[in-house]
Amino acid sequence: MDKYSILMSVYYKEKPVWLMESIVSILAQTILPEEFFIVKDGPLTDDLDKVITDYKEKLPELFTILSLEKNVGLGLALSEGVKGCRNEIIIRMDSDDYSVPNRCERLLSEMHKHPDCGIIGSFEAEFNNDRNNPVAIHRVPEHSEEIYSFMKRRCALLHPTVLYKKSVILMCGNYHDVRLYEDYDLFMRVVLKHNIKCYNIQENLYYIRINDAFFARRGGISYMKTVVGFKWRQHKKGYISLKDFVISAGGQAIVCVLPNVIRKWVYLNLLR
User: Fold this and answer.
1) 62-66, 252-256, 268-272: which has the highest mean pLDDT?
2) Which of 136, 153, 155, 207 could form a disulfide with 248 if both were Cys (CB 3.0 to 4.6 A apart)?
3) Which of 86, 17, 6, 83 has the alpha carbon at shortest distance from 45?
4) For the whole model, what pTM was predicted?
């Protein structure tokens, strides 16, 4: 049986009830993890600490807790987590989302079908309050060739859905401190720089919470500058062509300056 680690980062703004639901969804998997690695990204609230402490006390052999002295951001927190996980197979999980019961089993099964792949992902369903009524399904391309082409303009791997091999992530440089784009930055290096094969299961195995604030955070001049700056750096590194930069960064810049209600419609109807 495959041994795998779940990797999760938690910071102080998370809601304790959502963290608990996220952990419970992993403990209900048809194939359980050998390790649940939680990175505490800086000091947490008492309620969040209690959730984590309670599970650590109930299942001390399962849970590994790494406490960082200060909040360093998702990229650097996960970088420490990848280095600390004791298994080669790592499956990501965010602290406010939900995994369907056979998610990890399906990821492991596809890994065996595609042993040359470094990352296996899936679709994700986006929901607001009611998981049974998702507002959108985020679909991504299936095979390596499609993923490679897609990655030049949009991220073709949905970060919280993925299984990856620790050795591959470390070989590609692990996560970097890239604000808002730590996942895209890493996956570009995996796919476009090192040409490592990846695969996406063409079904939803994961539920991610969204609301109006989710779309608002993807707008404004500051976010637009972050988007354009990130894409320009990827062009300068040779990962994407000037044409890809103009199309992807230009299109996203336009979406950033739209009113939030229109931006929400674009995301749910054109980008999913």
Assistant:
1) 62-66
2) 153
3) 17
4) 0.94
